[in-house]
Amino acid sequence: MDKPKGNAREDILNTAERLFAENGIQNVSLREINAEAGYSAAALHYHFRSRDGLLEALLLKRQEPVMTLRAELLQPLQEERRPSVESLAEALVMPFAHPILNDPETGLTAVKFLFRAYVEQSHHGQIRKTTERSLKTFEPLLARALPDLDQTRRRSRWLLATELTFQGLANMDAIMALSKQSHARKSREQYVQTLITFIAGGLRYRG
Questions:
Q1: φ, ψ dihedrals at 78, nearest 5°
Q2: In the chain, ranges of CATH 1.10.357 domains
Q3: Confidence of residue 1 (pLDDT cuts 50, 70, 90)
Q4: Taking the domain 58-204, which CATH number applies?
Q5: Cβ neighbours of residue 193 closer than 8 Å, sequence gap 6 or more
Q6: Span 111-161, pLDDT tens digits
Q7: Rounded to whole angstroms, what are the CA distances from 89 to 9, 86, 95, 202?
Q8: What distance lies between CA 165 and its chain's CA centroid?
Q9: What is the value of pTM for the model shown?
């Protein structure tokens, strides 16, 4: 029986995201999502039609704000002859980190879900489309920022930086606990800045 109140679509999306983030996308059934959210199979089918429809709705929900903030961060760099590597690393990391800084529980769940999707669903059309769009956006800026690197090395390092961003943010709490940092906002901001600096150093490395 369905819940008598609430927004069924958002309830199902939030429940699916949490379960996917915790257990892996392939390890969670639609039946589990329905049971956890408190809705019947008919509700999920009505809003999303299928498992793939549910996954695509979640990806759009989380990726669109990332792309919007990223465009804002990159806009001032478009006219620079040689944008700084740090600015590009910031434009990669901050759109994912911003929700964590504002709402750690929700933001971390979102990043963990996106990391799972990036690793487990790389063949998915929406993931491929977003990855290609990101590369297309960053490549001309990377070419100006890192003129001594050829395209193959720039692309390889950028994809590695993307995966490191997901890993570093998804595992933020565990890494901060191991390094004996508090979970206050200031500590999280310092952690994010360290991640940005680390990624910039890797992109710039001359080896």
A1: -60, -30
A2: 58-204
A3: very low
A4: 1.10.357
A5: none
A6: 999 999 999 887 778 888 888 889 899 999 999 999 999 999 999 999 999
A7: 34, 5, 11, 10
A8: 8
A9: 0.92
